[in-house]
């Protein structure tokens, strides 16, 4: 389970009152065995590891923003090494990376029409930089998993295809996020088919189509405004049918983490109740 339903890194006012201890305790109580890392988590690996062990929880990964298209590679590498070593000490095997150069996901710009388009030079800087980061991850027997994301230069299925085609499969893997693909108008199952051998991390996120089509699209909302309106929710609460996805993941013998992630306003969508709803749905739908 991702902590973003309890406390939002991009919108810290959402869930400001929720503590780290409440977050991981409710995750564990809802039946989850792992989590990703949010802004309220202790940065001391020993303190964090102890708190998780008490609740029989593990760290699956944590987000890392790259700026390979807009800043010198060395700046990203320095921060990446510290992030890598932090996650390695906690036992994580994958590092979630997402290119934030020219990203509009935190800006007040229409997310459905304002996607940045990388130049050929920017694509080259991105792919070469990711391969170098992937090699650094391998030094610790870890892997980077690329997170396509609304409002960034790698958002659509076509963007993912290009990224996968222009990077080495030995050093750059893929994070499949169901919610972001559906939001962008793409089919997660097709992306899974096309890049099954590259997928090493999965975010299970549902979408409320009525919010997307009746509020986000006609009002040209920004990404963060779409989140506040409730465009995302947990599996089993929106319109995505996850059964075919689970079947396809089973066919390819997927063995990585399945992470429930749904950024919502916790004052409106009680995170513990939604965690229970997601866990029940996954048990019924995937027998996991």
Automatic annotation (TrEMBL):
EC number(s) from the headed UniProt entry: 4.2.1.44
Domain (Xylose isomerase-like TIM barrel): residue spans on this chain: 28-283
MF term (GO), any: myo-inosose-2 dehydratase activity
Domain of life: Bacteria
Enzyme class label: lyase
Keyword DNA-binding appears in the UniProt entry: no
Entries under Pfam families matching the protein: AP_endonuc_2 (PF01261)
Keywords: Lyase
PANTHER family: HYDROXYPYRUVATE ISOMERASE, INOSOSE DEHYDRATASE
Entry protein name: Myo-inosose-2 dehydratase
Species annotation: Alkalicoccobacillus plakortidis
Phylogenetic classification of the source organism: Bacteria, Bacillati, Bacillota, Bacilli, Bacillales
């Amino acid at each position: 389970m991702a902590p973003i339903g309890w406390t939002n890194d991009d919108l810290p006012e959402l869930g400001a009152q929720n503590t780290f201890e409440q977050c991981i305790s409710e995750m564990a109580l809802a039946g989850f065995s792992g989590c990703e890392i949010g802004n309220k988590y202790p940065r001391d690996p020993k303190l964090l590891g102890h708190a998780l062990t008490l609740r029989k929880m593990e760290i699956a990964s944590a987000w890392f923003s790259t700026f390979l298209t807009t800043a010198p590679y060395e700046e990203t590498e320095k921060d990446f090494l510290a992030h890598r070593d932090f996650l390695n000490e906690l036992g994580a095997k994958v590092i979630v990376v997402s290119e934030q150069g020219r990203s509009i996901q935190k800006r007040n710009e229409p997310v459905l029409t304002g996607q940045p388009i990388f130049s050929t030079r920017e694509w080259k800087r991105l792919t070469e930089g990711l391969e170098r980061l992937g090699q650094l991850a391998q030094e610790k027997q870890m892997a980077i998993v690329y997170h396509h994301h609304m409002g960034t230069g790698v958002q659509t299925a076509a963007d993912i295809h290009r990224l996968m085609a222009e990077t080495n499969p030995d050093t750059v893997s893929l994070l499949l996020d169901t919610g972001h693909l559906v939001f962008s108008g793409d089919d997660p199952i097709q992306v899974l088919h096309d890049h099954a051998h590259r997928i090493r991390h999965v975010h299970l996120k549902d979408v409320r189509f009525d919010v997307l089509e009746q509020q986000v699209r006609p009002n040209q909302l920004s990404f963060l405004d779409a989140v506040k309106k409730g465009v995302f929710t947990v599996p089993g609460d929106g319109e995505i049918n996850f059964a075919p996805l689970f079947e396809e993941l089973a066919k390819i013998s997927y063995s990585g983490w399945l992470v429930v992630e749904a950024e919502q306003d916790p004052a409106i969508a009680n995170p513990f109740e939604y965690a229970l709803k997601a866990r029940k749905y996954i048990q019924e739908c995937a027998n996991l």
